[in-house]
Fold:
Amino acid sequence: MKTAACKPGPGRILPHLRLCALLPLLTLAGCGAEYRVFHPAGPVANAEFHFTILNTAVMMVIIIPTTILTIVFALRYRKSQNAAYDPSFSHSLVLELLMWGVPLVIVIILTFCTYASVFDVNPADPLALDNPNDSAAMAAPLDVDVITTDWQWIFIYPSEHIATIDDLVVPQGRTVRLRLSSATVTNDFYIPQVAPMIDVMPGMVTRDAFRVNRVSEYEGFSADFSGAGFSWMQFSTRIVSPADFSAWVTKTQGAPDHLDYAKFLQIAQPTINETAAPHYFSNADPNLFAEVDMAVMGGKVFPVPADLDAKAPYPSPTLGKQDEVKSGT
Amino acid sequence: MFVQLQGAWSPLFGRLTLDSIPYSNPIIIFAAAFSAVAGLAIVIPVLYYKKLGYIFREWICSVDHKKIGVMYIILGLVMLFRGFVDGMMIRTQQVMADGPNSPGVLEAQHGYIPPSHFDQIYSSHGTLMIIFAATPLLTGLGNIVVPLQIGARDMAFPRMNAISLWLTVMGAMLVMASLFIGDFSDAGWVGLTPLTELPYSPSVGVDYWMWAIQISSIGTTLNAINIITTIIGMRAPGMRWDRLPIFTWTTLSTSIIGLTAFPILGVALALLGADRYLGTHFYTAGMGGNLMLYTDLFWIWGHPEVYFLVLPAFGVLSEVIPTFSEKPLFGYITMVGATFAIAGVSWAVWLHHFFTMGAGPMVNTFFSVATMIVGVPTGVKVFNWILTMYRGRITYATPMLWSVGALLLLLVGGLTGVMLANPAINYTVHNSVFVIAHFHCMVLLIAFTIFAAVIYWFPKVFGFKLDEHNGKRFFWTFCIGTTVVFTAMFALGFEGETRRLDYLYDTDWMPMLITEEIGIGFYCLSVFYFFRMLYVSIRDREKNRCGADPWGTARTLEWLTHSPVPFYNFAVTPQVHELDELAWRRANNCEHVMPETYDPIHMPKNSMVPIIIGVLTFGFGFGMVWRIWWMAGFSLLAIIAAVIISSFTPDPGYTISAEEMRKMEQRKEPPGIVEDSHVPRPLVEERLV
Structure:
């Protein structure tokens, strides 16, 4: 297990500034739950939110006075006001040095913020997740492979040998590490309250990671346009207790459908899963992610028909709307 | 055929069949009817007043930089209107299609537009607004203003200037054609690979998008060459580099960006074309292709393109604010420095468009810092404008209102831009409508300055002012619309609404969606006032006639000559003494001095070559889109032949004698832009035709 000390990056700098940044949080917390970005869950999203506030606060140092000056000057120096008029005032070395210097200083401060934050929230390996004091958090992460098709999400749990469509179930307090790739076109993995947004691209593997400490549910969806069924690419994200997770895994391991590459080829045909109805598979091939990635790199495509009648999203050619194994959380 | 196509193909008509015309779609039928009525509203008066010959001779074949500029701006405004209608349809669809129980009308399950059609609308909205509205509007302004500001008679290459125009027009015509014949791209204005590859976009939509942009980008590149040459080589005597007006400086910097960036776009699209037509694998996911290659190439053009648009907009602010503050621009040298700093850094920021593609932290940090550095020279510009207003005597004519509005928008856009430049923040809102709201603030800032510029320079070109009363109503309604729509959109971004959604699954967004729709109502009102402003101004044009300097406080060289500008710009090329030449002459009481002697002047002849090349280019584009090889091949060969023949046809131009010049100058009203020419301006291309 790697620790923060042996990784590149500045660690936690500017801790005091961060505390100041917590103040505006009080007002934002007043926003309803629909302001998803203002209600982060878990260390990565928290870090993102903190840097949002910090960055904005630093910017305000220059934006607020400039806005006030603009409005004041625009009103005060109207012709009708008979204010001081000095048409010769068109150059001032001091002022011009200041106007280059002050923004430069702000940018230097922001550069520190950026440098501090990029390692914290780096989707491939977020430092924010490292917490040596929390043994549960530092336990072996849960690996989930994510494949997008046109237009569904497939989540494969390689160690548990199960897979789901449009339903991501993970235990609370445990780090989840995702490998993501697409069978068709680019999508974007997005659960606003939980994880950094990350592109899901065919022929390439990206990574993302998160941890949530409380039992909760979030809506996840694709953020990057991928075709006619894009608007219906949601998946539920359920954070459940470890016990419930084990129960759910056991239950899913009894699902009648199995998932191997042949089955995947059927699922990956263009499908608009209109209600984001979940589906569950047992005996999922743990190497499926690599197989799909290899096939895509070898030129496998899943063509979309030209006469795609988007009016009536057609159901999956192989799956009905049964969700008999939807778990109890 | 090198590639596997879905659907039929015939040698005569390519992929084109009767089914390609979407006559069953009521929205498109309405759009077609509307376009037809609008077209007839122009054609019938032209025929009735027997002006067809005049339009053809004096406008279509014109090589006059002002007429070309005006045509660019008309094209830009028409496309802006269509882009606005697209935007309105997008907003209305989203407000109607929120939640699983939202009703559907027409052919849609939710809202009134099915996904395939909706995706075309948002793609054409982006393509039109960036490539066919903002770009031609600013190119047109540069065309009109730059030669006047530097005291030139025309552009360095007048005929090439007309070719640039007609290539841009034909690109726009291809987008319009896609509305009625076939379909437009449904893969976004950026062309998301591999979605734009044949397996995932089998119809002709992507081809329309690709060729329209390709053709118009050639026009933009040629125009950049023209502007750079004009500014370097055709300045009036005394117009040293340190006396160059700021708008000319910004147009120069922007043209350098244009010249260096647009060829990249050309290559990026050509490689996509190779994928779609020849079956290569540049951008496919498999077979060794790499979609990142396209994303990189596109944004290496795409980000400089943003500054290509915003720099002349900054130039407009730097002209308008001093004029209406009755003060010289504060910090001329810093302003020029800041302009070129922005232009230079624009090449090092493209990756911030895809922080989420998984580059490492150090790469992301580099591009994040580079992006934030852009904020420094931009901040310098803002301070310069504020200090220009400081101790000024500000009059709020409409151009000044638009400018102050643009300044405030720039502050919002700048704040959110720097937020987005930090990857940690970007990961939470990238691809959400927060990004859309941010760049609409920036693009609307450009739109604000365009309206300022059009109203500011309109009297110079046409000789009468636009109606201030309706102009102010236009401003305020537009301003309120912008505030309402984009405040709500920023909020929706924090609520996690992502872009390009045809159907919205979350009913929590409803209040903000309705707010946006209310803002759209204000925009509709502003469109009404815009047309009313035009109507009232043209009706009362005699009342609003103005002299050389209609604002009374303008500062630069272009205000020295008559309004409307005669086709030869300056009767005698002026001697430049100072930065802000007109202000200097006003201070020295020599602004109205008439020349004592006239010299014969040499002018370029009108030409049919540009429009012929333009029409042939449309033929080429249309042939390629539908894979009608004979049409594309014939057009391409004819273009090459036209270029060769016209290159070998001597075109000496024509000379106006000193006596004729004196007569024209001593008329009560010198020949304006809409006047049928009194001196013969012959078409000499009989040998070609």
About this structure: Chain B touches chain A through 109 residues (CB under 8 Å). Residues 678-689 of chain B have pLDDT under 50 and may be disordered. Residues 607 and 685 of chain B are 7 Å apart (CA to CA). The radius of gyration of chain B is 25 Å.
